Amino acid sequence: MKFIEKPILLQGHERSITQIKYNREGDLLFSVAKDTVTNVWYSVNGERLGTYNGHTGAVWCVDCDWDTKNVLTGSADNSCRLWDCETGKQLALLNTNSAVRTCGFDFSGNIIMFSTDKQMGYQCYLNFFDLRDPQQIDDNQPYLSVPCSDHKITSAVWGPLGEFVIAGHENGEINQFSAKSGEVLKKAKEHSRQINDIQPSVDLTIFISASKDNTAKLFDSTSLDHIKTFKTERPVNSAAISPIMDHVVMGGGQEAMEVTTTSTRIGKFEARFFHAAYEEEFGRVKGHFGPINCVAFHPDGKSYSSGGEDGYVRIHYFDPQYFDFELEA
What we know:
The chain is mainly β. The protein contains two helices and 28 strands. Strand 26 (292-297) and strand 27 (303-308) form a beta hairpin. The longest helix has 6 residues, at 134-139. The two termini are 19 Å apart. The mean pLDDT is 91. It is found in: Cytoplasm. One of its GO terms (cellular component) is eukaryotic 43S preinitiation complex.
């Protein structure tokens, strides 16, 4: 894999990164970690723009709305918070009974969804709030709350048109939950173990799931038809689809608790690039001193970033030759 220069190293967290997210234009990169801090960076040079302070536990998830007005974060302090992106001011605080694992704005930026963990006697819920109705926020009453009693949600994203949420569960199942009624519209069970991450393509028509069963898979968002599988020898923590090439990037490694028992060389802490059509690996990128927890492509497809167990976020810019690359059929 060719890159223009050294990666940009973002050092703004003291503990491992849990999620990174670009805004729609790609000029900003949001990062959250287990150290309670939410950072926002200029993606072009890695300068830190600011932080969103308020959480008192590990922050598991972050999302930014379509026009980069608001930011949403979910944390192990049993809260989901809404922030003003520009000023860093906290706009809303939604308290829950257990940790908030996933969160996201729909396409309009008006509806938010977040899921809570199954812990301390409370079951997993998928909650929907309409931000246009201040009463819901003030009363902490979602207009829809869907219980998931069997297997908790470990990753979730909005589907196309904001009609449903695509959720991955700890048993490897993928479900579509209607944002209107809360019913399960479709189910797929292609993975054998927990789904660690789900990321949609730019147009939301397909998505990629990363699983503990050492694979990442492409699915059709509407029908949940399984399209492709990318196999590795390690659990896949995160995977992303390139917006301009038929490429996917995957990051993984062992579980954090097993890391100390292996040398960094054996750990295989590389980002791995696969061709989306041929399912073949064509490149690896070294860098992190621990498993990669999350990966994301820049919306223009000319760079990607990764967040690791080592607490660093790295932004890699591709060499122009990368875009001429096409695997021989």
